[in-house]
Amino acid sequence: MASLEIRAARRHFVTPEGGRVAALDGIDLTVGANEFVTLLGPSGCGKTTLLRAISGFEALDSGSIRLDGTDLAALPPFKRPVNTVFQSYALFSHMSVARNVGYALEVRGVDRKAREAAVESALAKVGLTGMGGRRPNQLSGGQRQRVALARSIVAEPRLLLLDEPLSALDRNLRQQMQIELKTLQSRLGIAFVFVTHDQEEALTMSDRIVVMRAGRIEQIGTPREIYRHPRTRFVAEFIGETNLFHATVDRIEGAQALARTAQGVEMLLPATGLRRGQAVTAVLRPADFSLADQGIAGRVTRAVYLGSDLQLYVQPDAGGEEIRVTARDGANAPATGAAVHLSYAPEAAHVLEAA
Amino acid sequence: MRNPIGWASLTLFSLGFFAFIYAPLFVIIGYSFNSNPVNMMVWDHFTLDWYRGLFGLAREQLSGSVMPASGYVESTGHMLAALRNSLMVASITTVISTVIGTATAIALSRFRFRLKGFYSGFLMLPMMMPDIVLGIGLLIFFVTIGMQLSMLTIIIGHCTFLSSYVFIIVQARMAGLDPALEEASADLGASEWLTLRKVLLPQLAPGILGGALLAFVISMDDLVITYFVAGTDNTTLPVYIFGMIRRGVKPEINAIATLIILASVVIAAAGLWLRARKTD
Amino acid sequence: MCWRLRKLMTRQNLVLTTLLAPVTLFLGVFFLLPLVIIGLFSILSPGLYGGVEWSFYHWNYGRIFGWADGIDEIFEPIYLQILLRSLGFAAMTVVLSLLLCYPVAFWVSRLSPKTRLFFLFLVTLPFFSSLVVRLYAWLLILKPSGLLNSALMGIGVISQPLEILYTPAAVVLGMVYIMVPFMFLPLYSAVDNLDRALIEASMDLGANRIQTFFKVILPQTLPGIMGGAVIVFIPSVGNFIVPDLLGGARGLMIGNLVEQQFLSARNWPFGAALSMIIMSVVLLVLLSSLGRAKKAGV
């Protein structure tokens, strides 16, 4: 069932100063035939280069990209059964919406009747029925986004590439489009490769997330795996809000390990794979903590109102970095300066494989 | 992804294009050093005689050659007079058209009034009107009202269309300025005139300078309008050279042409360098 | 009365009037009035020894378009021919300079910023250099004993000198040569502003390079093409310097006719009528291009 297979893909660029920068530094990735995969990472991590290598606008220095077993390297962009939704939408301003959407069929020589039917159905899929006669510059940002989407699926590609397509939309529209994109993908039954630097977007839509950094893949996994079990500190910090604890394992009792930070804060961690004396980095999300009668003692330095929740910044009495905690807002919510104790379920703590 | 063969042929074509633009100029420069006085297309040997002749320095050397020396001396005198006329016309034209063009640009970009649309369209016309129409229009006009053709009529002719050029350049610069600066000045109590002098004009200076330079260059090179409205005693350099070429190709033209090419390269380079420095 | 006037002339109005007065007076007297006078002269009868007689006379146009009476004024098809030829030469100049400049504009826009600046400088430089001198260079090259013929005979391609000078080809060549910068700059700005994502989108959707060019690149740069075409066409129609220097009898254009009427034939009304025709062509082209631009803007 494997659809897209990328093996050992490498690509470097020469900077204006003459240095070499690896945009892709040995990428291995398989995308299933009906999978929604997100390439996530900060700008410059190589995610866009990877996307452009798949669409054919960048050549690889080495490595291969295969789609359903066919090597794409020899095919120019216009011969690849892959379409792209561009970040800027790249709508043709001199054509009507209908002609934009029908473009892929027009250049393939599909006759007018079949083309019109396909355009109608593509416009219907993105909720723009009857808008075919308009010009792109008469549409709102969200509508343009939908036209770009309709245009890229009309020729029934086997793989759709999306290059930060939602970045220009406002928050509400973006959230709505996230859901629509996911629905559309499962209805079309083709693979989506989605590029973004927005971790929330990645968590919302993806079957799997590929976290990239400096031309390499840091971790591949489902949103839950990536969030709950980040493999590296980079992944932990890039995705969601994170409290990191650097500690040394004191002793192991059954399924639990007792560790101590340099400042002397005591922590209970899942013991799996740990041994005495080992230096570990543990990840705890703000929502993993709750206010209790005992646990890590500290003082609230700031309380930020987030609507139904409060974000508390708690300075442990023992010292060390502030801990971020999500607490329910209410009458007895702690105020700035209040002394609190933080507790958490030991199994919620996640120990990084690599620091 | 670039198609390497396509790119190579595009490069080749483009270099050919630049050769097409520049080869003729180099042909002139080359021939201006050819000593063959009978057939200047046949290379004889390197000489500076034609340049010496231009500056009236080569009387003795040339007296033995085929051409009578007096011809050169006389034509040199005419040519220098034409050059003087050109410089004078261009200088005065530059001043007048810069004042008119700048005033108009300020009026059109800083004020709202009913005829604004009309003015901005109307100011395009002198630039778009073919120079021959403008030239004969002015000729008939001057003759009809009984105005003697002179340096003055040439200057008037140049100002009609160069005011528009200055206007366009200054207006473009104006569009890039922040009106809030003038509002701040007015807010701080400066009158309109004071704001104009102390705030607007200094900011506009690069645009005004660019417009003036363009006006000067075009005025120096104008042929058609001058051709119609110049009196018999007031030719400018382009008209003089045009006449010379019409009478027949003589080797000294090569030397004059080379000097003009060099002068224009220097002016253009200076102008562009000035602009590049300003935008940095 | 006095206080009302003062109220009307607020400070703002005073400044505006002062700023607009010079251009209004100057262009009114020395631009609009001359154009009106050309129109007026074109319907007056020519005087016996140059000058005009102040009586209405439509045969100036009749001589050109064919309703001359055959007694006082004779219709000669040559005038119409020359008019059509001028339009043809101008159109050819537009097409040739477009074909020359478009690929180069594309090439320059793809260069690194520094090299790009250098080549843009090279394109604009000839604009600053004398028009007569640049045309004179072609005289040297195209003459029967000129550089081109010597070179071609030297390498044995031809045995007799080609007759290029004083032909229509020489006129069009000369006009293309002087108009190239005017065509290049609007084209370059259109090509440079073209969003590269559009080209990629087209190829991504399955269009090959040729389809992409005709369906996306060309239509997207059309405003620049139209702008360049207008800017080149207008001065070409009325040009008389180029045909004067490089064209013979077969290369004569309407501008030459006008010049002759004023400086040798001394038939001013007829010359004025010919100028009116040039002016109408120019205004027609300008208005239609404005109309196009307005329609495309909606």
Automatic annotation (TrEMBL), chain A:
Source domain of life is Bacteria
Q: Where is the ABC transporter domain?
A: 6-239
Q: Which InterPro entries match?
A: AAA+_ATPase (IPR003593), ABC_SmlMolc_Importer (IPR050093), ABC_transporter-like_ATP-bd (IPR003439), ABC_transporter-like_CS (IPR017871), Mo/tungstate-bd_C_term_dom (IPR008995), P-loop_NTPase (IPR027417), PotA-like (IPR005893), Transp-assoc_OB_typ2 (IPR013611)
- Output one GO MF annotation: ATP hydrolysis activity
Q: Which Pfam families is this protein grouped with?
A: ABC_tran, TOBE_2
Reactions catalysed according to its record:
ATP + H2O + polyamine-[polyamine-binding protein]Side 1 = ADP + phosphate + polyamineSide 2 + [polyamine-binding protein]Side 1
GO biological process assignments? putrescine transport
Question: Which cellular components does GO assign to this protein?
Answer: ATP-binding cassette (ABC) transporter complex
What Gene3D superfamilies does the entry give? 2.40.50.100, P-loop containing nucleotide triphosphate hydrolases
Keywords tagged on the record: ATP-binding, Cell membrane, Membrane, Nucleotide-binding, Translocase, Transport
Recorded E.C. number(s)?
7.6.2.11
Q: State the protein's purpose.
A: Part of the ABC transporter complex PotABCD involved in spermidine/putrescine import. Responsible for energy coupling to the transport system.
Q: Which family does it belong to?
A: Belongs to the ABC transporter superfamily. Spermidine/putrescine importer (TC 3.A.1.11.1) family.
Oligomeric state and interaction partners are given as:
The complex is composed of two ATP-binding proteins (PotA), two transmembrane proteins (PotB and PotC) and a solute-binding protein (PotD).
Protein name, UniProt field = Spermidine/putrescine import ATP-binding protein PotA
Organism of origin is: Paracoccus litorisediminis
Q: Provide the gene name from the record.
A: potA
UniProtKB/TrEMBL annotation, chain B:
How is this protein positioned relative to the membrane? Multi-pass membrane protein
Q: Which Pfam families match?
A: BPD_transp_1
One GO BP annotation of this record: transmembrane transport
Q: Does Transmembrane count among this protein's keywords? A: yes
Q: Does the keyword Transmembrane apply?
A: yes
Q: Where in the cell is it found?
A: Cell membrane
InterPro entries per UniProt: Bact_Polyamine_Transport, MetI-like, MetI-like_sf
Superkingdom field: Bacteria
Record keywords, A-Z: Cell membrane, Membrane, Transmembrane, Transmembrane helix, Transport
The ABC transmembrane type-1 domain sits at: 83-271
A GO cellular-component term linked to this record: plasma membrane
Entries under PROSITE patterns matching the protein: ABC_TM1
Chain ranges passing through the membrane: 12-33, 87-109, 121-143, 149-170, 199-218, 224-243, 255-274
The family classification in the record reads: Belongs to the binding-protein-dependent transport system permease family. CysTW subfamily.
Q: What is this protein called?
A: ABC transporter permease subunit
Organism for this UniProt entry: Paracoccus litorisediminis
List the top taxonomic levels of the source: Bacteria, Pseudomonadati, Pseudomonadota, Alphaproteobacteria, Rhodobacterales
